[in-house]
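1st attempt posting a full record on here, be nice pls
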Amino acid sequence: MATSEVLRVLNLDEVIKRLFFNHKSYYGSEEKWESAKKEKGKESDFAFLLKNGAYTVAKLFEKDKKPKSTQFRKFYEEVIKLRNRGQRYKNDQKGFNTFIKPPLNLLYSKIYYAVERNLAGPTFKRVMEKSLDRIDSQEELERFTLFMEAIIGFMKKN
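the predicted structure (as tokens):
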């Protein structure tokens, strides 16, 4: 990484908001999405979020001393399974809502369990819940999966 590419710590709420902000479903229609893309001149700042947003989250996890990278990987593996299963519903919102959204929502109880057992901290709970609240399509699930992968890359190994 060049010295001009210093990683910045961002506001956590801003990271989660921007993770899904420049996405078709956020704008509600294809026409509004196309108009927003032309106005911005680029599709999204997702690459920036994968670098700086994931770095921010990893540093906050480090501050909480939780979750350990192995605990976070367990959640990541579950999200990967759902993403892979959801590939067939990429263009089928009803299928996504029927077969992917319910097991995705089951992660809320697993997050609660991890926090109650002191395996994860408040930052983990906040990041996961706020992200899961915004996942309403296969494309958003794929973005979240990439974001989690980037977080793992920045986490201290333990």
